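Customer escalation, tier 2.

The customer says the design service returned an amino acid string that "doesn't look like it belongs to this structure." They asked us to rerun it and document both sides in this ticket. The original structure tokens are below, unchanged.
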């Protein structure tokens, strides 16, 4: 029964209708690992060993983890696309994430009054030459930084794609203030099966980063 209760808490953490925000792609990855790496094999093993009650509890947890995954793809992804369209972003998808969840793996930001947090995702199905890529990415990043509603917002990313030069400079300045991260490798959560194909393909070039927007117009057009 305790396992079932844990599953229920995990599911509720993915339902914004209950005033708890999304855990983003990293939360999705954790749920997939719980589903495929823990609950499913343990349920099979315990049932084979004859422990029916524990096996059923584990199998129930396995079934319950399907709900947040469906919620992620049917609700959170479309909502992120709508937010990005409202901000007139052409190349970036902004996915809202729970601030408390983000602070678990960006601990240096715990002292700041962060109001919102987003994951930055790039549209990898857009085929562009390098100069057009930098131009579009640069333009979208400017729209985010100069948006009046983005003050005290933390944005995080994990990508093999390069960052435009003036934003690398800005990140470097923010790192001196402990308001930015830019380091080689991912966030430390292994990539589960069936997802993160782009990150897996270029895993040796992946960098993860975080940037705290503390005021509007941190960089000019």
């Amino acid at each position: 029964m305790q396992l079932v209760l844990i599953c229920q808490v995990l599911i509720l953490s993915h339902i914004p209708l209950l005033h708890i925000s999304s855990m983003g792609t990293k939360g999705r990855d954790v749920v997939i690992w719980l589903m495929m790496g823990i609950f499913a094999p343990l349920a099979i093993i315990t049932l084979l060993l004859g422990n029916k009650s524990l096996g059923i509890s584990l199998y129930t947890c396995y079934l319950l983890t399907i709900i947040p995954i469906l919620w992620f793809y049917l609700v959170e992804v479309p909502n992120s696309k709508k937010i990005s369209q409202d901000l007139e972003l052409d190349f970036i998808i902004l996915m809202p994430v729970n601030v408390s969840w983000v602070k678990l793996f960006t601990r240096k930001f715990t002292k700041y009054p962060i109001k919102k947090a987003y994951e930055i995702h790039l549209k990898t199905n857009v085929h562009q030459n390098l100069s057009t890529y930098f131009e579009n990415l640069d333009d979208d990043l400017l729209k985010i930084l100069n948006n009046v509603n983005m003050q005290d917002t933390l944005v995080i990313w994990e990508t093999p794609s390069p960052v435009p030069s003036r934003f690398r400079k800005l990140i470097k300045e923010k790192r001196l203030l402990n308001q930015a991260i830019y380091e080689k490798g991912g966030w430390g959560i292994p990539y589960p099966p069936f997802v993160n194909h782009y990150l897996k393909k270029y895993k040796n070039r992946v960098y993860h980063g975080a940037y705290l927007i503390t005021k509007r117009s941190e960089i000019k057009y």
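Tier 2 assessment: The sequence is consistent with the input. Confidence is low (pLDDT under 50) at residues 14-20. Residues 24-48 form the longest helix (25 residues). Sent an explanation to the customer and offered a walkthrough call.
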